[in-house]
Design a protein that fits this description.
Blueprint: E1 3-7, H1 27-34, H2 39-46, E2 54-62, E3 68-75, H3 90-104, E4 114-117, H4 140-149, H5 154-163, H6 165-174, H7 191-195, E5 196-197, E6 200-203, E7 209-213, E8 216-217, E9 229-230, E10 233-235, E11 241-242, E12 246-247, H8 256-267, H9 282-293, E13 329-338, E14 341-350, E15 355-364, E16 370-371, H10 378-399, E17 412-416
Parallel strand pairs: 10-16
Antiparallel strand pairs: 1-17, 2-3, 2-15, 4-6, 5-8, 6-7, 9-12, 10-11, 13-14, 14-15
Helix pairs in contact: 3-4, 3-5, 4-5, 4-9
């Protein structure tokens, strides 16, 4: 495949400590948001509790040696204010999957090795083929591509099955991400079914068995003492309208600040304590950086229809009606949307204007207060709000004075360029 190149620097970093209090709002960020002329943004900022809105803006400053430090500014920051992370959980699962492979240190097994998933327990689904990959076989590398490029769901399920429910939560807690609670796959499973994970086989290029992972079961308990109920009514799994709030108590849960820190730990490993980093190789890290920021239109496998899955499809802070992103901007991010919640955690790089920063935000847009009815205000409130605050922070960064300019010119990220001669059919529909 032909390649495009983006040149960046991810140097060693200083650690900055932040207070993580209840309903924290910093004056600088509040004033920036207040400057918006967008009526939607004004409405959200005036009543952040209604929209369960939280924002983290991270300034990145360098010293005379080029070493960056990080300063977080919060709006309505509250770890107790629940939001459904939806597809955001695919990001730590991708990181943990590569960490597990790295620590397995099994000969012949890496992120490109073909995998076969058995059906080992009630409702589990076997997987032997992946028609979207070049070799027609599943692998961790291809799952990560699909999870990041347009946020497909089944790759998350497969990484969940590979790492295992118990290890997912223990690993994240050991790294200091104490708010993490990953309890479910995106398969409509019961609590007990989610505790079981599939048997997996790894095979070499000739189809020979080289490694086997037995089915697993998580015996550890979760703390569900804090009840989380949202809305005034909901539709249940039997398509019945229940005139009671929807119960999110046992759903996946990670705070916005922890998501921001998880992404920062891979982008800038030396900016967090050693125990918070993911134990992956440099090649794995470059792979993650590529697909956190590569566009669907650049990718041949999977070959997504660019008219449906346009470049800004999962880049909420730069997703406007044009569906285009300037060529000098790259966005390393993950988004999630479900049940009326919309979230984006991003690192933005502008190589033309020599700026970089991080921005994370979540909002709840469900004006009828009926959960699980597939009637949400993503297009009328959620997306316009995300785009507007994205542009507010971007414009502020364009004008913000830096004592020492970042050097974004010594770190290579290689992007694919779609093979225009490829005759395989494009993908127009996915479950995401």
């Amino acid at each position: 495949m032909r390649k495009l190149y983006l040149i960046l620097t991810f140097a060693a970093c200083n650690i900055s400590s932040e207070n993580f209090g209840q309903n924290d709002t910093d004056t600088l960020l509040y004033n920036l948001l207040q400057s918006s002329v967008n009526t939607i943004t004004k409405g959200v900022i005036a009543d952040p509790q209604k929209y369960r809105c939280q924002i983290v803006y991270t300034q990145i400053n360098r010293n005379s040696k080029g070493i960056p430090s990080f300063k977080n500014y919060y709006f309505n920051n509250n770890p107790a204010l629940y939001f459904n992370p939806a597809s955001m959980v695919k990001m730590p699962l991708a990181f943990l999957s590569l960490e597990k492979l790295h620590e397995m240190n099994s000969t012949g097994v890496n992120k490109y090795t073909a995998m076969q998933f058995d059906s080992s327990y009630d409702k589990q689904v076997a997987l032997k083929k992946d028609t979207t990959s070049e070799n027609q076989l599943p692998s961790i590398a291809h799952f990560i591509k699909r999870a990041f490029l347009i946020s497909e769901n089944d790759p998350y399920n497969r990484m969940y099955q590979f790492v295992g429910q118990e290890a997912i939560n223990n690993k994240l807690h050991q790294k200091g991400y104490s708010t993490a609670r990953i309890t479910r796959q995106f398969m409509g499973f019961t609590e007990e079914q989610n505790r079981h994970t599939n048997g997996i086989q790894f095979k070499d290029e000739k189809g020979r068995f080289i490694y086997q992972q037995l089915p697993a079961y998580n015996k550890e308990t979760f703390d569900f003492s804090q009840t989380i109920k949202i809305g005034k009514a909901h539709w249940d799994r039997n398509d019945s309208l229940i005139n009671e709030p929807f119960d999110f108590t046992k759903h996946n849960n990670i705070t916005l600040k922890d998501f921001q820190q998880i992404l920062q730990s891979v982008l800038f490993p030396n900016s967090v304590p050693p125990n918070q980093r993911f134990n992956i190789s440099n090649d794995d890290r470059l792979f993650l950086l590529q697909y956190l920021s590569q566009y669907p239109s650049e990718t041949t496998y999977p070959k997504y229809d660019s008219s449906v899955f346009y470049n800004s499809y999962v880049k909420f802070f730069f997703r406007d009606s044009t569906h285009k992103i300037p060529p000098h901007i790259r966005i390393f991010n993950k988004v999630g949307w479900a049940y009326g919640f919309s979230t984006d955690v991003s690192y933005i790089v502008d190589t033309k204007n020599n700026i970089d920063y991080m921005l994370a935000a979540t909002i709840y847009v469900n004006s009828d207060e009926v959960v699980n009815d597939s009637k949400y205000d993503y297009e009328t409130i959620g997306q316009p709000f995300m785009y507007d605050i994205g542009q507010i922070i971007y414009q502020y960064e364009l004008n913000r004075k830096h004592i020492y300019q970042p050097k974004l010119n010594t770190f290579n990220i290689h992007y694919d360029r779609r093979d225009l001669n490829d005759k395989s059919p494009v993908i127009k529909e996915v479950d995401n």
